[in-house]
Amino acid sequence: MPAATVHYDAASYRQSPIRSTLADLFAGLKLVELWGTMGWLDMRQRYRRSIMGPFWVTLSLAAFVGGLGITYGALFNMPLQEYLPYLSVGIVVWTLISGFLMEGCGTFTDAEAAIKQMPAPLSVHVFRLIWRSLIIFLHNVIIIVLVLIIFGINPGWAGLMSLVGLGVVVINGAAFGLLLGTLSARFRDIPPLMSNVVQTLFFVTPVIWRADNLQARKVIADWNPLYHLIELVRAPILTGFPTAVNWEFSLLFTAVNCLIALLFYARFRWRIPYWL
Q: Is 3 contained in some domain?
């Protein structure tokens, strides 16, 4: 399979690091067949000799949603037909976001052999991460579909807006992969650190509870960018449309996230192969 060769010329890099980085990203994006195949092979290797494959993740997540929905629905005094759809969409989207954060740390370190042996843009491994995460997400979407059918919820045409929100989430996932992948290549303490951070974020993000439950302390949710990203997908499916605040905060966070990731990747991209 032909691959685009990346030439790490120090002189041209110093002259225009942003331009060379954008060229790397666009060259990587064009190699759909390469990162698509690599992402698919990652999934096959992960669930090698497994009959259920990725559906084991879906089954365990479904059991988690069912048990949590019954228990916390009673604790929060919310009807099951109202709480379970809210919880199922939130958990599935959170699993995608947390996957970007956790696996984003291994974007380059997990691909060490390929980076050292294959002359392809480094960004290929970012798109490989995105595709692999989306495969798992599409399996988990089955949970949402079943819950909507069971409770007779029809999102209608407004539900298509969730695809736009999903696109925003994926863009942030790519930024996480660039930033955390570069950081983790240099500092191997980042993955265990992110494991603790993601665990904490799960409890302070309105995934299993509603932001309105905080009342006077709702600022905890209002200033949490992950909450707004989740709402971009969850709100169109359940309530119609995300609020203007959800969009404003999400787009602002996405712009800042992408800018930081781009600048950091542009500054240290050429060092990544030497750090591995």
A: no
